[in-house]
Automatic annotation (TrEMBL):
The keyword Metal-binding applies. InterPro entries: ADH-like_C (IPR013149), ADH-like_N (IPR013154), ADH_Zn_CS (IPR002328), CAD-like (IPR047109), D-isomer_DH_CS1 (IPR029752), ER (IPR020843), GroES-like_sf (IPR011032), NAD(P)-bd_dom_sf (IPR036291). PANTHER family: ALDEHYDE REDUCTASE (PTHR42683). This is Enoyl reductase (ER) domain-containing protein. Gene3D superfamilies: Medium-chain alcohol dehydrogenases, catalytic domain, NAD(P)-binding Rossmann-like Domain. It holds the Pfam family ADH_zinc_N. Transmembrane segments: none annotated. The keyword Ligase does not apply. CDD domains: CAD1.
Length: 356
């Protein structure tokens, strides 16, 4: 086993507004708990674009994005016992957490199995190993990646690699809050935004027992496709009559859309008394809404960030059993900028998957 750094060939952005360009960098040495993965597929997440554009905060350039990764283990550290060379695995939006392994610094989040919220959380890209060597992380628009083995997940045999990629972030992001809230028999679940996250939210809500799933979109252009994915009802929320008729129509509302200046007060009107709104979409601007629906209907407001190690395992198991499958469009990795533009333009149905 080689623990030495590897030259990794990637596509990086070097400044806000620039296209991704070929770039090489030296990986971290392979640690005893790490695995090296030869990347076969990486899908394009909306977070990639926000990061490339320094939309949420100042990005550390050069930046290699991509955190919906599938590939094959090519090296495994001496202490890795749960996977071996040749295993097909996926990597999501996180590559390291302390997992409460440091007695001098107990971690409440990791101790509770909430490692996505670890104080030393290391994201797959544009992040640093602050607790260890301080190295910067680079993502999946590349030919290889090295991560700690806990954050490499074996992919069920019945899910093809290209289709599996979006599950690692998009799938986890919508599954986890549904798991935490608990979809009860009789619950009606609404999904605002029917793109990369939303089309999976519809499928997971049905798989987890929702009595009905209502899709909310700005236009009717996707209605037939979304109904085929399992939506029972479709509401064009920019249509005043349709929006009014949808008042108090759902018990759980998952907001996946991340555009600026969205009508959040209108979205809250769709919730029934004591309903729960879940935020997973992250616009670049501050959100604004009236507090009256929250108080007047006794609403619960919940945020959710990706998912824990166990959440991802549970998500993959459910996707395997219930046939939850992303709808994808494939491009070669060399056409990464074409794929990014498809996401920017909103023309993709519903996830671009880059293939090495």
């Amino acid at each position: 086993m080689s623990t030495t750094p590897r030259t990794i060939h990637a596509y990086a952005t070097f400044a806000k507004g620039e296209e991704a360009k070929p770039w090489e960098y030296q990986s971290r040495p392979l640690g005893p708990e790490d695995v090296e993965i030869k990347i076969s597929h990486c899908s394009i997440c909306g977070s990639d674009l926000h990061t490339m554009d320094s939309g949420w905060s100042q990005t550390m350039y050069p930046c290699v994005v991509g955190h919906e990764i599938i590939g094959e283990v090519t090296l495994a550290g001496d202490q890795v016992k749960d996977m071996k060379v040749g295993d097909r695995v996926g990597v999501g939006a996180q590559v390291w957490a302390c997992l409460n392994k440091f007695p001098d610094e107990p971690c409440k989040e990791c101790a509770k199995g909430k490692d996505a919220y670890c104080r030393y959380h290391v994201g797959t890209y544009n992040s640093k190993y602050r607790k260890t060597d301080g190295a910067i992380t680079y993502g999946g628009y590349a030919d290889y990646i090295r991560v700690t083995h806990e954050y490499a997940f074996k992919i069920p045999d019945n899910i093809p690699s290209d289709v599996a990629a979006p599950l690692l972030c998009a799938g986890t992001t919508v599954f986890t809050p549904f798991k935490e809230v608990g979809i009860k028999p009789g619950d009606r679940v609404g999904i605002v935004g029917v793109g990369g996250l939303g089309h999976l939210g519809i499928q997971f809500a049905k798989a987890m027992g929702a009595a009905a799933v209502v899709a909310f979109s700005r236009s009717a252009s996707k209605e037939q496709e979304i109904r085929r994915l399992g939506a029972d009802e479709f509401v064009v929320y920019t249509d005043e009559k349709q929006a009014a008729d949808a008042s108090k129509s759902v018990d759980i509302l998952l907001i996946t859309a991340d555009a600026n200046n969205m009508p959040y007060t209108l979205f809250l009107s769709f919730l029934a008394v004591h309903g729960t709104v879940i935020m997973v979409g992250l616009p670049n601007d501050e959100i604004k809404f009236s507090p009256y629906p929250l108080v007047g209907k006794g609403l619960n407001f919940k945020g959710s960030a990706i998912g824990s190690i166990q959440d991802i395992k549970d998500m993959l198991e459910l996707a395997s059993k219930k046939n939850v499958r992303p709808v994808i469009q494939k491009l070669p990795m060399s056409k990464v900028n074409e794929g990014i533009q498809m996401v920017r333009n909103g023309t993709v149905r519903y996830r671009v998957v880059l293939e090495n």
